[in-house]
Amino acid sequence: MDKQEVLRATVRKLLQNGQVSLVIGYANGTLPLRTAPVFIRTAEEADLLVWNSLCEYNLANYLPRYANDRIAIVVKGCDARALVGLLQENQVQRDRVYVIGVSCEGVVDRRQVAALVGGREVTAVEESPENIVVRGRGFEKLIPKKEAMFPSCRVCRYGNPVLADITIGDSVAAGEDAFDDIAAFENLPAPEREAYFVREMNKCIRCYACRNACPMCYCKQCFVDASMPQWLSRWVGTADNLFFHLGRALHLAGRCVDCGACARACPVGVDLMKLNRKLIKDARELFGYEAGLDPEGRPLLGTFNPDDPGPFTIRG
Amino acid sequence: MSSNDEPKVIGFLCNWCSYAAADSAGAGRYQYPTGIRIIRVPCSGRVHPFFILSALRRGADAVLTAGCHPGNCHYSTGNLIARRRFAMLKNLLEFTGLEQGRVNLAWMSAADGVTFARVASRVVTQARELGHYQGALRKQSEVPDNG
């Protein structure tokens, strides 16, 4: 049986025997290359569930909002880490959640698919283990999944969920992440780096889709909405956009699990992972910290070590 | 930068050490530049990264955060929390192209007027050399305005 069939059977059983009252998973979206989150409460609806390489959302995002349900949730490796983060921060009670982990070989980035077909409209998609075939008016293209995979997935070390009550699918080989992309960017001259971020920030329309897609952005009031103090203006501008993205990245320092939900949600393609991955790299290099691995652990910035490095401290 | 065009430096000083150090610098008549504007905070751990971002966003040319020496925090561990946060902030800001020397962290004890005067001079001198901050956190949108 393929993963999707096992998933449906598992969910059907969970709902039939009343073990959970709500299942959060993926269904087909209304457009090709899209899936959509689906919330099901009856066993009959289990057939709505799908599992493919387009299951790009981080569903852990929804957990804190359903505090009154016993939930089963479908998680990929990165989503499971986000869930661990939410457990660490007491946003989710472990005994209310049944975690259906699915081993994940990476999600296909539809922006890269669009680029590979030259922006032509895709009307049908077919998937095999190695490839996806996209079709549209007058064209058909076979794309190896590896070529259109979301960048973070290419170097993912946690394809197998770190936390699950049941894991579907064979375990996948862990990748290697040397943060080559970030290291290469660090080596550029500072003015070039700044110019890059100015260009990226100029794209941002401050729709806050990145924030809304992020499971770790659960604040009841976001700093961008605060009026006392008002950290930044409501309108779009390079400086305020950068303030927003730096602020959000810093809020996620030591919490971001590199799932990329923010970057994929961005309608204008701002390179958000540059900021997030820089902080992940620093957390690892400076403090040997990796987010979302230990439900009993403490968040990076909520704790300290007397021997933390401080080479930047100035003396008179 | 001419002499009447002093850089604006915001100093977030911990009430228990560095603010007292600034006080003793005054009492001891140690000279330090006028460019530094002091804001007293209860602890360096109170200095949220947003304070520093906001200072740069709203006109500061450099920022200094100062607190008690590690191990000597009035609240035991506030400065250790501050140090971690600051490491992440400074690296991220410099990653996005901010010059080194714009954001600073220093430790000093309450009796250390000389250290405060030296640190303040160093930060202001650095800022003078860097010139006014006109980086990305000061840029207006390049998107044409419809109004």
Can you walk me through this structure?
The complex is a heterodimer of chains A (316) and B (147). Chain A is α/β, with parallel strands linked by helices and 316 residues long. Chain A is built from 10 helices and 9 strands. Chain A is globular, with a radius of gyration of 20 Å. In chain A, the strands form 2 sheets. In chain A, strands 2-1-3-4-8 form a 5-stranded mixed beta sheet. In chain A, strands 5-6-7 form a 3-stranded antiparallel beta sheet, with no helix packed on it. Helices cover 31% and strands 14% of the residues of chain A. Chain B is an alpha/beta fold and 147 residues long. The longest helix of chain B is centred in the middle third of the chain and has 18 residues, at 78-95. Chain B has helices at 18-27, 49-57, 78-95, 113-130, and strands at 9-14, 36-41, 62-67, 103-107. In chain B, strand 3 (62-67), helix 3 (78-95) and strand 4 (103-107) form a beta-alpha-beta unit. In chain B, 55% of the residues are buried. The radius of gyration of chain B is 16 Å and the shape is globular. Chain B has a single domain (9-132), classed as Rossmann fold (3-Layer(aba) Sandwich), CATH 3.40.50. At the A-B interface, helix 6, helix 8, helix 10 and strand 9 of A face helix 2, helix 3, strand 4 and helix 4 of B. Strand 9 (313-314) of chain A pairs parallel with strand 4 of chain B, so a sheet runs across the interface.
